[in-house]
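Incident log, structure service

09:12 report received: a user says their structure output differs between two submissions of the same chain.
09:20 pulled the input from the user's history:
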Amino acid sequence: MRKPPLRAGESKLWYLVSYDIREPIRYRRAHKVIKGYGEAVQYSVFRCKLSRQQLAGLRWELARILDEVDSLLIVGLCGSCVQRIHAYNRREDWTGEEEGFAVI
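09:34 re-ran on a clean worker, output below:
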């Protein structure tokens, strides 16, 4: 339940991940998975900065947990969308530091 490592030259985008899970056990399992990929903004809303490979990994892990009565929403945010995000009563910066290069 860790996000896959970033490959050299692979870019990341911000995603807003929200879910509505009806069963407490599935809720806790999904919460734990998503927390490994991002940070909670509200109880069932997360912000995640992911590469395409990491996004696919997150979706795969959640598909194994969620039931057909549950709902999952993943919204990709472009750079200009991220600049228009206003978080009130919270100290957050969506721009974040870019990760450095990995030497392999």
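09:41 both user submissions now match this output. Likely a transient worker issue. Closing.
09:42 reviewer note: The chain has three helices and four strands. The longest helix spans residues 52-65.
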